[in-house]
User: Fold this.
Amino acid sequence: MIEDQDFIKTCDVPGPTKEAIRAIILYKSDVKDTDNVVDIGCGTGGITCEFAQRAKSVTSIDINPQAIEITKKNLKKFGLENNTTLIQDDGENAVKNIDNIDIAIIGGSGKKLENILEIVNTKLNPKGRIIITAILVDTKVEAVNKLKELNYNPKIMEVNISKGRVLDRGIMMMSENPIAIITAKKR
Ligand code: SAH
Assistant:
């Protein structure tokens, strides 16, 4: 795993997704070196960099050109440019042109999550996995409902990570989240 502090960051782009959350996402995705991954809303490339180390290919999409720029820098920093493609576009638009998806991660979608899920569903291979990270309660509900409508059996977990800051007078636990991780597998 890459440590949070090792990613290049900028205040204009959210991320990276915290290390413990990245670890759960990797575990839940069951990623293999034959898998083609898309990371929609790649932000700083936190998730992209982890999957680039383990998957066959990663296509990372973000609507924000600065996110694509910083993801590129992080991929370069960790020497992971070989099996990655970066697309600066709306996720809904970009994913229309991508086939043969084994794992779709949606970390940002604006108000287009339902549309993106509809398209991802048509592009996802049998036994493919969808993973959505959601901070807004509304996104969590929308994700679960849309996956149900598309005939998936979605699972949702709420993750709260607190890390200890060791001080002279004791240990102060500092909260880093919460975030929900919604997962579904194509039947
Ligand atoms: N997982 C990332 C953080 C994601 S933040 C990391 O580890 O760094 C969410 C990202 O989703 C933002 O960069 C935002 O620009 C992007 N986003 C929001 N709506 C989008 C859309 N419709 N299409 C593509 N990207 C989108």
Summary: Residues 65-77 form the longest helix (13 residues). DSSP finds six helices and nine strands in the chain. The mean pLDDT is 97.
